[in-house]
Specification:
Two copies of one chain form a homodimer. Chain A contains eleven helices and three strands; from the N terminus they run βααββααααααααα. Chain A has 246 residues and is mostly helical. Chain A has three domains: 68 residues, Orthogonal Bundle (Multidrug-efflux Transporter Regulator, Chain: A, Domain 2); 37 residues; 118 residues, Antibiotic binding domain of TipA-like multidrug resistance regulators (Globin-like, Orthogonal Bundle). In chain A, a hairpin with a 5-residue loop joins strand 2 and strand 3. In chain A, helix 7 runs antiparallel to helix 8, helix 8 packs across helix 11 and helix 9 packs across helix 10. The longest helix of chain A has 34 residues. Chains A and B meet through helix 1, helix 3, helix 5 and helix 10 of A and helix 1, helix 3, helix 5 and helix 10 of B. The structure holds a DNA duplex (30 and 30 nucleotides).
DNA sequence: CCTTGACCTTGACGCCGCGTCAACATCTAC
DNA sequence: GTAGATGTTGACGCGGCGTCAAGGTCAAGG
């Protein structure tokens, strides 16, 4: 007993195009191909198709399905792997939905949160892992809570202050002012003051954050863009400031 | 102040490839292009980029982002539409995850649910609308509940019984046995008995279901594949049986 | 001046699972 | 014979870039 492609498609709830596709990728070959090129499927092919469609409904990719069906991979193992992927995606979606809801609420309240919050290289979510690794979970949590509590305008102001400080760092470096001189130490004081808006800065924190500016170009560029080598200059000036004044 | 593409990429947490892509699709043009073809971005471009990335993090497509940013579409409206999509997808994923978990449990218990539950052309979900239209909502609900309550093995057995009956219908038709004769009516009795597994068959139901076998090839093929014209044969035999015995 | 290495360009394919024409051959029924 | 349903292969499209490929440009150092 055999069926034409359209019969199979209707019986299985898929399409003839999909069946041809499965043939093309070597997932399901017709049991017979007529001299006219027509594809015919027998009972065995239907069973195989059914297994394919079952796994596909679960969201597996055609490649995995092929491996499972041909016995090259354990079905349970494939499903477990797949399940983890699905769950991760599901959680990602949940977070995204929350973000959209929040953003929607804010825009409806008329907030212009998409305005001019220029990049500051200190995005409190983007570098989450690094921040936690270096200063611990609480520091991150406090910082994140603080950041979340700010309005768009407050965030923008905060970043503007930093932008000004970075510009001054660049100018100081360009002018050749010594890192332990009055100019540099004055900027360092403002820098620490700026830092204290989000996190109460300890001596060790201030002394070491400069290393990160130098080591990590994602942070350092904020300074080096004004004048090359400024990140290192900032690092040294902050170390001096931490020793002297904290 | 302007920045080279790589600087912008690092500062914004994206890639130069993406920036070129945004340029190519008209989403974000560089503020200046050098005579050497190099792209440079100024503050305004950065602000625009930031809005792009914000919306992209929320999962919006580049096309929508373009419309929103260029003020051709209300941001709130776009976000609401998008939110509905996300929520639908989220629920779909949740259902899929449940399916995978169920399937995984079964395969781990050793059940061969991917085995030979061949298509029967009577899939209780596939033809939902038709079934409801012909026999009403309750009939469908009852049938669906019954079907759902069956295990894989029970479903397979149910379908195997039908497969046997269909084979016999084909043989009876081929042999030329009269539809009101002993052979055909015997098969009709088994057929009705089989039907009663899922739905208590009324006289009218039995008398008319044969019409559907003939009218709808998706159903009729199950019989005609054994011997052409068997669907009509079954229809006639069932009509006689309904009159005489129900 | 030359090299090295980092960075820039355009162009094009790949991914994933088919949907959707297009252009043409074949089967079925009247 | 002819219409209409159904079959074939071939190729593009989708979304958002990643990832070569092949080559031009620039700053720094010898």
């Amino acid at each position: 007993m055999e069926w034409a492609i359209q019969d199979v498609a209707r019986a299985s709830g898929t399409t003839s195009r999909a069946l041809r596709h499965y043939g093309a990728v070597g997932l399901l070959a017709p049991s017979r191909v007529g001299s006219n090129g027509y594809r015919y499927y027998d009972q065995a092919a239907l069973v195989r198709l059914q297994r394919i469609l079952l796994l596909r409904e679960l969201g597996l990719g055609l490649a995995s399905i092929g491996r499972v069906i041909d016995g090259q991979q354990d079905a349970a193992a494939a499903l477990r792997t797949h399940l983890r992927l699905l769950e991760a995606e599901w959680e990602r979606l949940a977070r995204q939905i929350e973000s959209v809801r929040t953003t929607l609420r804010k825009t409806e309240r008329g907030e212009q949160l998409m305005a001019a919050e220029a990049f500051d290289g200190f995005d409190h979510t983007q570098y989450k892992d690094e921040v936690i690794e270096r200063w611990g979970q609480d520091a991150y949590d406090r910082s994140a809570r603080w950041w979340e509590s700010q309005s768009g305008a407050e965030k923008a102001a905060h970043q503007q202050r930093h932008e000004d400080i970075a510009t001054d760092w660049g100018a100081a470096n360009r002018s050749g002012a010594p890192v332990d001189g009055e100019v540099a130490q004055g900027i360092a004081a403002r820098h620490v003051d700026w830092l204290s808006e989000s996190v109460p800065p300890s001596k060790g924190y201030v002394a070491n954050i400069g290393d990160m500016y130098v080591a990590d170009p994602r942070f350092g560029n904020n300074y080096d863009q004004h004048e090359p080598g400024t990140a290192a200059y900032v690092r040294d000036a902050l170390k001096v400031y931490a020793e002297r004044s904290l």
